């Protein structure tokens, strides 16, 4: 088959005026860089005869270029004497993320003091705007509370919070006192939350009574109590009142008909009691560059979450770099990425934009409530300029039709973003054309929680093919290798995505220790970070991903990614979404089983089933023709819109799917158990 069918044509060409106006073009002019290939070469490798080149040069230069402020200048940009696995960055420097993202912008003499730092919209439609001045006062109150609670530098603090404005001040308040913020996805249930609390051992946990989702109040406090009971460690719980179900709400409105959340008078305090009463001034701590800032959790291949350890200097430089260059941040921009504070993209969005005094838009609820145009309405109403979302969420919104998009003015958009999984060409084109008007570049990024950023990222002044990830991010020494670890990047072969060098934001080992860290990322090949993705670079220099290597379907000794099977099915006019899983087979070892969600108006039939099976066989070969193809109403998804494939596979095999507390739509499992 043609590896690049449907994605081999350049469909986005930025205008000369737009390309020249970008931040990355300004950087290229500043350093005499003529084209994209030279840009990547200069920022990722040492060019003979060019002193202004190499990974160390770039990460040193970028500090002043992006106006990142250290309290104390660093003595050396890096020490990698122990190899890329354990590089130390910005040695001797003192810095604090909170100073860079809030304090300096809230200073009396700062032009950003009264600029809006956050526009928040609740699902019921309530809107709040928070200035940098207000954000600093709130963050300082959080910092003073944490100090009163005995939190010191290096202590962990849990954030099991709804997406409300206060979550930003909690994050920044933790950073101010030198605490390690531990964001936990608000969609997690008891088991997943308890696992993270047990591992991180925070003594303070911030949570809420709940949040709104699809018009209903979803309770959070009870789940938090259960998780704390299972895990222990937590001595103080601060509860934000979103639903009117805390004692604070009861005292304000004794006639409230909202059932109160469970309460422990010895441990629990309301937000107003714990934080609102604190002084609104705090002197942010000066911390070593390598001081831990956040503990973010990412699932491991064994199912046990991995505690990713980030530093102040690392997340600050990486997030700021990517927002400035990849997403072309400008002073008047309004940046909205669909995420939760418990996922990497939440802190990434906040830190990256607030480093420049930018405005972030945050939304509480479901993407299609009360109607499928909720995001389009939100973009129109708030004049959003950058909009990021997962491919799966776009596929779900696309099925509702163009009319929901056409009713709104989306002309404020300059740049679109996506991450989380591979695209199919049809959905990418719809995102580019229907949402972006054919003018906005789709900055499709891939990296991970492990680096709080991107290994691959297009630049907005580049031409684009559908689904491409452009190429390596600036300062990221990335390659594609075969099973022996030899580079196949320039040969056009499919291989494994690796990093040949570290970057400032690369995880500082794992919270559980070096052994698992080295085994997870550095054990496949000597001194190569194995990211676990299938990657390929085409003859025109565009990079593509083909899914996770550990998700590969190994049929009769041949491997193909699930996304490639799914892409063939989604290309059919009758198919809206598809999921492919591998199941045991006596003959081939593994057989493909495909699940399909049809477009509105398309009906399941045996003829359509056989037509779709034949399509896959024609494209990938007879061994990959699905053994079964099943029609279902919906796929199980997370609140961020990602398909939970392990749940699909477990239902087919009649196995326990494990913790599904992050699932948005549990009823989808019933559809899987009774397919057409």
UniProtKB/TrEMBL annotation:
Residue segments, region Disordered: 248-285, 653-676
InterPro entries: ACAS_N, AMP-bd_C, AMP-bd_C_sf, AMP-binding_CS, AMP-dep_synth/lig_dom, ANL_N_sf
Molecular function via GO: acetate-CoA ligase activity; ATP binding
Keywords from the UniProt entry: ATP-binding, Ligase, Nucleotide-binding
Enzyme class, broadest EC rank: ligase
SUPFAM superfamilies: Acetyl-CoA synthetase-like (SSF56801)
Listed name of the protein: acetate--CoA ligase
Record flagged with keyword Nucleotide-binding: yes
Bias-annotated ranges (Low complexity): 248-262
Domain AMP-dependent synthetase/ligase: 112-502
Transmembrane segment boundaries: none
GO biological process, one term: acetyl-CoA biosynthetic process
Organism of this sequence: Halorubrum ezzemoulense DSM 17463
Start and end residues of each Acetyl-coenzyme A synthetase N-terminal domain: 56-101
Domain AMP-binding enzyme C-terminal residue range list: 564-642
Family the entry assigns: Belongs to the ATP-dependent AMP-binding enzyme family.
Domain of life assignment: Archaea
Stored PANTHER family: ACETYL-COENZYME A SYNTHETASE, ACETYL-COENZYME A SYNTHETASE 1
Record-listed E.C. numbers: 6.2.1.1
């Amino acid at each position: 088959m043609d590896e690049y069918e449907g994605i081999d044509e350049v469909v986005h060409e930025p205008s000369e005026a737009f390309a020249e106006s970008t931040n990355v073009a300004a950087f290229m002019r500043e350093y005499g860089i003529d084209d994209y290939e030279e840009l990547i070469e200069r920022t990722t490798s040492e060019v003979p005869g060019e002193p202004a080149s190499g990974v160390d040069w770039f990460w040193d230069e970028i500090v002043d270029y992006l106006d990142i402020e250290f309290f104390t200048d660093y003595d050396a940009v890096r020490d990698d004497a122990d190899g890329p696995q354990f590089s130390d960055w910005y040695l001797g420097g003192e810095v604090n993320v909170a100073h860079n993202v809030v304090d300096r912008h809230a200073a009396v003499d700062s032009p950003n003091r009264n600029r809006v730092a956050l526009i928040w919209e609740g699902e019921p439609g309530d809107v709040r705007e928070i200035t940098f001045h207000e954000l600093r006062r709130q963050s300082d109150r959080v910092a003073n509370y944490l100090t009163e609670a005995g939190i010191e530098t290096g202590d962990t603090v849990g954030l099991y919070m709804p997406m409300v404005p206060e979550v930003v001040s909690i994050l920044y308040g933790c950073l101010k006192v030198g605490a390690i913020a531990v964001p936990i996805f608000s969609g997690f249930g008891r088991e997943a939350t308890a696992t993270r609390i047990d591992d991180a051992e925070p003594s303070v946990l911030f949570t809420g009574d709940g949040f709104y989702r699809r018009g209903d109040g979803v309770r959070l406090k009870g789940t938090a109590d259960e998780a704390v009971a299972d895990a222990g460690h937590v001595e103080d719980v601060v509860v934000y009142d979103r639903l009117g179900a805390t004692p604070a709400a009861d005292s304000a409105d004794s006639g409230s008909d909202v059932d109160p959340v469970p309460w422990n008078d010895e441990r629990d305090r309301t937000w107003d009691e714990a934080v609102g009463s604190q002084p609104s001034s705090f002197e942010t701590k000066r911390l070593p560059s390598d001081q831990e800032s956040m503990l973010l959790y990412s699932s491991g291949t064994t199912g046990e979450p991995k505690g990713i350890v980030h530093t102040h200097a690392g997340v600050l430089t990486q997030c700021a770099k990517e927002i400035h260059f990849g997403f072309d941040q400008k002073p008047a921009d309004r940046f909205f990425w669909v995420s939760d504070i418990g996922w990497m993209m939440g802190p990434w969005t906040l830190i990256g934009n607030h480093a420049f005094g930018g405005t972030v838009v945050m939304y509480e609820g479901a993407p299609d409530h009360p109607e499928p145009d909720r995001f389009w309405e939100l973009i129109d109403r708030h004049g959003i300029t950058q909009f990021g979302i997962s491919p799966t969420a776009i596929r779900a919104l696309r099925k509702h039709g163009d009319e929901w998009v056409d009713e709104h003015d989306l002309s404020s958009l300059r740049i679109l973003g996506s991450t989380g999984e591979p695209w199919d060409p049809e959905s990418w084109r719809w995102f580019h054309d229907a949402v972006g008007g054919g003018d906005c570049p789709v900055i499709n990024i891939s990296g991970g929680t492990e680096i709080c950023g991107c290994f691959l990222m297009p630049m907005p002044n580049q031409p684009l093919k559908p689904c491409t990830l452009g190429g390596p991010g600036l300062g990221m020494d990335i390659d594609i290798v075969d099973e022996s670890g030899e580079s196949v990047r320039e040969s056009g072969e499919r291989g494994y995505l690796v990093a040949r060098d570290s970057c400032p934001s690369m995880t500082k080992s794992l919270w559980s220790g070096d052994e698992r860290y080295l085994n997870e990322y550095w054990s496949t090949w000597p001194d190569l970070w194995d990211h676990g993705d299938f990657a390929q670079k085409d003859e025109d220099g565009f990079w593509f991903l083909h899914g996770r290597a550990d998700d590969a379907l190994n049929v009769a000794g041949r491997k193909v990614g699930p996304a490639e099977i799914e892409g063939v099915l989604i290309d059919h006019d009758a198919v809206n979404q598809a999921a492919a899983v591998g199941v045991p087979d006596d003959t081939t070892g593994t057989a493909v089983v495909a699940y399909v969600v049809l477009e509105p108006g398309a009906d399941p039939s045996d003829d359509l089933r056989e037509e779709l099976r034949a399509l896959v066989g024609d494209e990938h070969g007879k061994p990959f023709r699905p053994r079964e193809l099943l029609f279902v109403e919906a796929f199980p998804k997370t609140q961020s819109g990602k398909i939970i494939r392990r749940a699909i596979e477990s239902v087919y095999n009649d196995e326990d799917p494990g913790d599904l507390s992050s699932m948005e739509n549990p009823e989808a499992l019933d559809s899987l158990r009774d397919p057409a």
